[in-house]
């Protein structure tokens, strides 16, 4: 065994001992047996954020055909309804960095889901143009925050060799969401309260994502960045495993890179 390998094993051994002495919460103790399975479940739930973005683009197009009479909208108001979502997304993108730094990746995605769910609920239940405006803007904030957080979260959790393909799954889900949106719009086209059902249907998807993310772990890199090394190692064991030498080495490399980044910040 080389000196580097011995050093690697010693570092991981110390973390393993510290982990055994640490009280782990219920959510941090959830495992799915095989770390690879856990990783795929994590990616599947997180990437559902792209589904929400694609859904909205399709659903609002269908809803616009039916809500004009109910809300007494003129052409200018319809344009504003359409534009308030991207305006909200701009604000969501602006708060992306401080929110990720303060809350972490997982909680940022949960906050984004809450904003999206609140916005979608206001849209579906809107009885005035102001309520619709508020719903569109809040929903957009959720999409802006989620759109920048999910790819980072996935990239920090998956193995390096799979990172590119799994991060691109988010973009695939945007396209898939657009298809689902048009299918949903077609299903409710002859139902009483057509546009409310269309817009409200996205609540199902946002709720599934919200509940699923509650049971997902925080990004191990973020935890390491915050000095929570043992917790970072615990998450790594669950989603990546430490039985494989490449996984062990990648954890140590990640730790080293985070330490370098922190040292560089101190020099500035």
TrEMBL record:
<keyword id="KW-1133">Transmembrane helix</keyword>
<dbReference type="GO" id="GO:0022857">
    <property type="term" value="F:transmembrane transporter activity"/>
</dbReference>
<dbReference type="InterPro" id="IPR020846">
    <property type="entry name" value="MFS_dom"/>
</dbReference>
<feature type="transmembrane region" description="Helical">
    <location>
        <begin position="107"/>
        <end position="127"/>
    </location>
</feature>
<feature type="domain" description="Major facilitator superfamily (MFS) profile">
    <location>
        <begin position="42"/>
        <end position="268"/>
    </location>
</feature>
<dbReference type="InterPro" id="IPR005829">
    <property type="entry name" value="Sugar_transporter_CS"/>
</dbReference>
<feature type="transmembrane region" description="Helical">
    <location>
        <begin position="195"/>
        <end position="216"/>
    </location>
</feature>
<comment type="similarity">
    <text>Belongs to the major facilitator superfamily. Sugar transporter (TC 2.A.1.1) family.</text>
</comment>
<feature type="transmembrane region" description="Helical">
    <location>
        <begin position="37"/>
        <end position="55"/>
    </location>
</feature>
<dbReference type="InterPro" id="IPR005828">
    <property type="entry name" value="MFS_sugar_transport-like"/>
</dbReference>
<feature type="transmembrane region" description="Helical">
    <location>
        <begin position="133"/>
        <end position="155"/>
    </location>
</feature>
<keyword id="KW-0812">Transmembrane</keyword>
<protein>
    <submittedName>
        <fullName>MFS transporter, SP family, sugar:H+ symporter</fullName>
    </submittedName>
</protein>
<dbReference type="Pfam" id="PF00083">
    <property type="entry name" value="Sugar_tr"/>
</dbReference>
<feature type="transmembrane region" description="Helical">
    <location>
        <begin position="75"/>
        <end position="95"/>
    </location>
</feature>
<dbReference type="GO" id="GO:0016020">
    <property type="term" value="C:membrane"/>
</dbReference>
<dbReference type="InterPro" id="IPR036259">
    <property type="entry name" value="MFS_trans_sf"/>
</dbReference>
<feature type="transmembrane region" description="Helical">
    <location>
        <begin position="167"/>
        <end position="189"/>
    </location>
</feature>
<keyword id="KW-0813">Transport</keyword>
<keyword id="KW-0472">Membrane</keyword>
<dbReference type="InterPro" id="IPR050814">
    <property type="entry name" value="Myo-inositol_Transporter"/>
</dbReference>
